[in-house]
Amino acid sequence: MNRTAWKLTETQMREWLQGLVDAGSSVVAPVEEDGLTLFSPIAAAQPAHLEASGKTQWSPKEFLFPRSEALYRYSLKGDTVEIRDPEVAETQQVLFGIRCCDAAGLMRLDEIFLSGTKDPLYAARRAATTVVTAACAAADAECFCTAVGGSPVATEGSDAQLVPLADGWMLRVLTDKGEALVGEASGSWTEAAPDDIARIDGLEKIVTEQITRNPIQREWSRVLEEGFENASWDQLAQHCLGCSICAYVCPSCSCFDMNHEADAWCGEQCRSWDACTFGLFTHHASGHNPRSTRQQRYRQRVLHKFSFAGEGEDHFRCVGCGRCIALCPAGLDIGEIVTAAATAIQEEGADAAR
Amino acid sequence: MQLAEISPNPYHPNLMRIAGFADETRDVRTLKLQFIDAAEASEFGGWQPGQFGQFTVFGAGESVFAIANKPWHPNGSGEPPTIECTFRAIGKVTTALRAMSEGQTIGFRGPYGNHFPLDDWKGKSLVFIGGGIGMAALRSAMLAAIDRKTEFGDIVILNGARTVADMVYKDEMPSWQEVEGVRVVRTVDPGGEGEGWDGEVGLLPNVFEQLALDPANRIVIACGPPVMLHYLFLSLGKTGYQPDQVVTTLENKMKCGIGHCGRCYVGPFSVCKDGPVVTWAELNELPKDY
């Protein structure tokens, strides 16, 4: 189906956004807070920090997969237990101005939480969420979406997409949800001209040229899996501190922990973000730990992003946002490490064949 | 809106009453659990041998145990099942569980995972090899196989423990042997024997080799600590077993039970969803990360 593309001035875009806030949706957009750009629910269109480039410190995943939440609550009454399932918010949610890499990250979360036994809390939030991405007009230093099969103007996971133009915005409507979000607002808008639409390709080219990281080759998935025990991992991952900031800021990391938070009478089964780079992640009660070293744990993180694909998945789980590179206190660069590991494994294979 | 109005909550445990227990060793206990809520009991679909559950101590958290008694399926009689699990008090949840008494309430959700393919083993001889608490993961399949003995060749059960005091299912082993063609071999690690011990003394892989069973038309079902499995696989290779004749069950740390939380992943394999039951052949395809 051919969807409409609209041309909006900055004012028209802000008015539309204000309309979404006024309509009672929970609108989440980038805002500036203490010198950081972060996603936050906004009460008015004005604070939304919608720029042609730059991204938030954290991904927007917490609005679908919160940092912590109760899976059920319970109270003890004598010898019986009363269990209450959580409430589900009925408010519609709009993720406004997230980057294309973050939208791709949400698709990776879908593959985990909506496959097999669906996660009902995630599914309910996802169904009530509309995604409006903002295409990038410039790349950050750490960006590498194009190296992992993405694009600064990719539409995967977007219901509508804002494309920055020199004189305002183009709004590409991509799904029924996107259509519904535009609704009556388009009355005063003009349709984008073919010339404007053609500018998307130009934008993609400009941004792609700014991304200096080398492409991650698709066939490295197999190389990395086969070279699981390659000695280069010890050296490549030796600087990892195990702090796991990479997993926390990652738009596609989905591992979690479950614990009872309780007093003597009542409590909750609490789910919270966790990371495979933590030492206790796979630690058995017996003391056995399949991944007892930081190197083994870092390798797991890299291979889960680039190698261990689920059935029918033909893409990397890394979306190339670069946040883990920007924030790693040890300066580890996942793109460089994948390249180095794949190269080392291939060289070892070539040596063995000689 | 209540979540239950939209979709079932996979994390909502069934409430179970501790109907009884048996102390296997100083720190290993087998619980018998019964559904408290009749509606939850009537919705329960039963389990296959080798599947596991998440057991909740309210206030402490959840622990994964294999369902240790014979497989059960709704049979129209309306008779609710008793679920058994054997656990070792070793961590926070299991220590709290050990402190509970008959009549108290815990949670159960499951069953999860794949199961031992008993039907595929028809006509074959079976060897069950359990190291310590590993026996618990085999018990459901073993009891089912003993029950259906006419469908199989001879059945050998090798129950190994560090010491005599650490041996699980001591009291019930004699009853397993009552069925013709079932042989139970008990062994303890060297130094663990003690006075009056009439079983074998030796590490499980060695004792298995000494049994000198014919590998032809035989399935080996093994569960135990990683180090035992490592040496057992070496023995199996030496004595002529093919990797697809050997079945084990991976006991990784798990939290969610439905393949989401990421904890039990071995490469692309999710132990809770794709496992826990794997053949040695399948294990050879996975990265050594378990």
Model description:
The complex is a heterodimer of chains A (354) and B (290). Chain A has 2 domains: 5-65 and 88-210, no CATH class; 220-256 and 273-353, no CATH class. Chain A has 11 helices and 12 strands. Chain A has helices at residues 10-22, 100-113, 120-127, 176-182, 194-210, 220-226, 232-236, 245-249, 294-306, 323-327, 334-353, and strands spanning 5-8, 26-33, 36-41, 68-77, 80-84, 93-98, 129-134, 160-165, 168-173, 190-191, 256-262, 266-273. In chain A, the strands form 2 sheets. Chain A has an 8-stranded mixed β-sheet, with helices on both faces. A 4-stranded antiparallel β-sheet of chain A has the order 5-4-12-11, with no helix packed on it. In chain A, helix 6 (220-226) crosses helix 11. In chain B, helix 6 (204-211) runs parallel beside helix 7. Chain B is globular and about 65 Å long. Chain B has 2 domains: 3-112, Translation factors (Elongation Factor Tu (Ef-tu), domain 3), CATH 2.40.30.10; 118-249, Rossmann fold, CATH 3.40.50. The chains are: A alpha+beta (354), B alpha/beta (290).
Write a concise keyword list for the protein shown above.
heterodimer; A: 354 residues; alpha+beta; 2 domains; B: alpha/beta; Rossmann fold; 6-stranded antiparallel beta sheet; 15 strands; globular
Task: Give a brief description.
The complex is a heterodimer of chains A (about 350) and B (about 290). With about 350 residues, chain A is of the alpha+beta class.
